Amino acid sequence: MAECKNRRKHVLLLAYQSFGVVFSDLSTSPLYVYKCTFSGRLRHYQNEDTVFGAFSLVFWTLTLFSLFKYVGFMLCANDNGEGGIFALYSVICRHAKFCLLPNQQAADEEISTYHSAGYSNRNVVSSRFKKFVEGHKKMKTALLVLVLFGAAVFITIAIFTPAISILSSVEGLQVRAKNLHRGMLVIIALFLLIGLFVLQHYGMHRVAFMFAPIVILWLLSVAFVGIYNIINWNPRVYQALSPYYIYKFFEETGKDGWISLGGILLCITGTEVVFAGLGHFTASSIRVAFSFVVYPCLVLQYMGQAAFLSQNLSAVSTSFHSSIPDWLFWPVTVMATLAAIVASQAVVSATFSIAKQCHALGCFPRIKIVHKSKWLHRQTYIPEINWALMILCLAVTIGYQDTIHLGNAYGIACITGIFVTTCLTSMVIDFVWHKSLFGALLYFSFFGIIEIIFISSSCMRIPKGGWIPLVLSAIFMFVMYVWHYGSRKKYLYDLHNKVSMKWILTLDSDLGIVRIPGIGLVYTELSSGVPAMFSHFITDLPTFYQVVVFICIKTVPIPYVSQKERYLIGRIGPKPYRLYRCIVRYGYKDVHENDDYDFENAIVMSVAEFIQLEAEGGGTLDGSVDGRLAVVRSSENFGKRFTMSESDGNKESSRWSYPASGSSSRSAALQKLKSMYEQESPEFCKRRRIQLKLLDTTYKDSRVKEELLDLMEAKDAGVAYVIGHSHVKAKWNATFWKRLLINVLYSFLRKNCRSPSVGLNIPQTSLIEVGMNYHL
């Protein structure tokens, strides 16, 4: 009983918090729905039945899509509790051979969250359509392009949402100040937009606690205004809940009514954010919040606005603000502005998440992803995306200067994104849930046909500004695909030109070079074999570090990978070579470690554990082995065979965590350079210094202890990071289009994005770059 009560409290708490994150965008739609609906020829039909028909369309659109499709059905199509377009794509890729990500291994399928409970049965016979798609690479590429287009549309939505929400909220000032010029409203909106994007840099953790109360007060306010208008203007408006009024609406308005659907669909803008924000909450909490608060409040508001318009159709251009009672006008207007800012913040944050997921899946140029421990859980900030969104948002606000034209563009972007989601969900029904193909087609036919009708209506608004979101989405999608294409070709080149093990084995334990103290972390995209970069380095400069670890950082198609399952360790060549492989696996929503010392220490501890497990013959105890690779952190003895002494300034302590050591050198010249760097960068001195010491443990094989001592000695000597500095060019006999993509577009993106060392958070004082030419 107590457990059930605590569970209910938890659901209610999450439901309360969800208002400020996932429902704020949907809740601000009443500001502009009727204005955009009656913006065209529909304003000539000034009678009660037309208004009632418009409300009936709004009611049933909101019910079918927001309530039934998204809240009722789509929340079930999650990926380990995560929602969004990449959650659908990743769950499809895991249950069918559609994934175009490099470095996929059989060991990845042993991750505990790879196969979600209740999703699929491996023994179920695949459908013919699934086998057809799996057998054609072009179909896999088409699926990826569809997903990238959906992501591009979401980024476009993040440009228009702040513009239309904030501009429509301040338009109410014209109701009280008749002489207020339109340009002044635009200037006010621009200042609010600039403030919104500037604050992103500092994080929203200080004011986030206000988001949910603001949206709740906003919803209760508009619901009260709706009830007031129903009673005061037209109590018979409840009759429009009947779909019969939709029939009467189209019978009377005909083609003009069909064109007005582009405004009706604005009532469901924000439903994609509801699904994308699932990971922060639970499906049950979102359903409770929407079903008992958001949905009833929105229905009452739309109904009340319709009651007001049925008697005051001439006020349609300011229908929301004009319908507010005089004594409530200023409080509701202030709440509208605050709710619009919260809605904009939610969409911008969701866009950062979408861009991060694109980047993790190798479909976005290298960007700087900022996450601070004091920020909200999973909150990220991407400077490049933030400032680009701000510039574009200001541009469309200045360019359109009107809610109606913004609505034309916004509606096209939203309904396109919803249609992409419908296509992917149909595939989940067939490929993942293993329902019949007929069931998937039935789902697609019902929702897809309705969405196509809305899209056809929105296309009539393309000449009126609706072309801009399509062009922006196409540009974003093209950039993402070019980056994916170039990165994949580069990986295939590395795979084809990797050094064979036969070449490694022909060398002696010193690899034919001078081995110097320290650890060399060689970054490569290969999960097997030795990259050509390494042989290129030791051929031109025959010296390298005492211990070499080949680091492969890769993304697996799941949201998160636990720390215990993150590091996959193996050995390359005989033991005396001191060559190891470490595959670091992240989910597409994981936040990478920001502390390079923590990362160094985690690598060293994992390699040390692998050495001991290998000696004990325990490498297969966990069942997580791929050839000579093993997940070592699942071992019960992980971290218990060493002592760690930590010094922070003049203080020293001992703790069982995974910090890391600072790099050092025995060279006097490098020591001098290091001291100069410390003087220029005081934060470097504040970092923790860690020293690992091997416990007095008896080993059957003395060579094991010798290898561990070598590892500890190398760590104390310092850690260097070796990455490739590549120059990419298409082959001389490549086609014109390939040369254009590689030599011009992909090269341009590579030169104008972050360097690999920034994305990997590699300290510049420990960085070694090896030049490599790629002929793709």
From TrEMBL:
Its main location: membrane. Residues 642-663 are annotated as: Disordered. The chain crosses the membrane at residues 12-32, 52-71, 141-168, 180-199, 211-231, 258-281, 288-308, 328-348, 381-401, 407-429, 436-455, 467-483, 503-523, 543-561. It is a multi-pass membrane protein. InterPro entries: K+_transporter, K_trans_C, K_trans_N. Residues 517-776 form the K+ potassium transporter C-terminal domain. Keywords: Ion transport, Membrane, Potassium, Potassium transport, Transmembrane, Transmembrane helix, Transport. Pfam families: K_trans, K_trans_C. It comes from the Eukaryota. Residues 14-505 form the K+ potassium transporter integral membrane domain. It is found in: Cell membrane; Membrane. Potassium transporter. Belongs to the HAK/KUP transporter (TC 2.A.72.3) family. This is Potassium transporter. It comes from Salix suchowensis.
